[in-house]
Design brief:
- By secondary structure, the protein is α+β, with helices and mostly antiparallel strands.
- The protein has nine helices and eleven strands.
- The chain has helices spanning 2-13, 53-68, 103-115, 144-162, 170-181, 219-226, 234-241, 250-269, 272-285; strands at residues 21-25, 32-37, 42-49, 77-82, 86-92, 129-131, 134-136, 189-190, 200-203, 206-209, 216-217.
- The chain has a five-stranded antiparallel beta sheet with strand order 1-2-3-5-4, with helices on both faces. Strands 6-7 form a two-stranded antiparallel sheet. Strands 8-11 form a two-stranded antiparallel sheet.
- Helix 3 packs parallel to helix 7 (234-241) and helix 6 (219-226) packs across helix 8.
Length: 286
Amino acid sequence: MWHAVAEQISDALGTTFTIEDKQAIGGGDINLSYVISSRHETLFIKINQKSFFEAFETEMFSLHELELSDTIRVPEVLCTGTTLDKSFLVMEYIPLEPHSDIGWGEAGEMLAELHAIHEQECFGLDEENYIGTNLQPNGWHKKWCIFFAEQRIGWMLQILEEKGHSFGDIEEIIGVIKHYLGHHKPKPSLLHGDLWRGNIGFHENEPVFYDPSSYYGDAEADIAMTELFGPFPPQFYQGYYATFPKSSGYELRRNIYNLYHLLNHAILFRGQYVHEAGNIIKQLMS
C-alpha cells in the first residue's frame, strides 16, 4: 500500500517522494492517521477503506473552499487517492497544540471574517458531503428554515427511523422546526460545519481549522456547535462577537442546530446521544 501512496504523492508533487519514516498518530474515531516523511518533505495522511474515497474527496472540496475565503487557516491539501483496498487524503503536516491563550481570540475573529462573507444567495452546496460517516445532503434552497428542517433534521430522523429509533412523526417534527426558524432570516455564510474543539488547533499560536463538513448556512450553526461538547474559551467568543453580535433568540436556535449533531452522533454511537436528542425533540414538540 505505501508504495502506491508514495507514487501518487510523487505525481502530485511533481518530484519523487520516498517514504523514509511514518508514525501513526491518534485523534479520530473514523480514520487511521500518519505523519509520513521523505528526506525533504513531511506530510499528514488519513487512511480508510476504499469505499471512503468519496468522503475524502468532499473533505478536500471543503478545505479548498475555506482556503479560498482567505479568512481562516486550514491545512493545504495535496491529493486524494486509492490503493488496492484503501483510500487516502494527503495534506500538509502542521504540528499543532490544542490550546493557546493568545490564539483563541484570533480564532473567533477569523471565523467571524469567514461568516461575514455573503457572496452566496442560497443555502446548501454544489455537492453532497459527509458529517462523520453519514451523508450530508446539500441541495440548494432559498429558505433557511426549509433547508435545515428537511435536509438536516428530517434527513437524520429518517436514517434513525430506518435503524429502529423513532422520535415521533418525522413530518410533524420537520414542521415544528420550520415554525421555530421561520422568522429567522440569516444570510448564507460558508460554514466549517463540524466545529467542535477537536477540529481546531494552534501552530505557534496561530489557529488552524480542520476536518470540515462545509456548506452555506446560518453562521449561528457553527457557533452553536462550539458550545455542544463544552464551550470554547471566553476569548474565542469575545473575538467573534466583536464582529458578529449575538442575535435575539439564539439560545433556542442553538438547541435546534445542535440537535442535528446529536442525531448524527446517535447514528454513529447510539447511547446517550439518542437520549439527549430525544429530550430536545420533546421540548420542541411541547
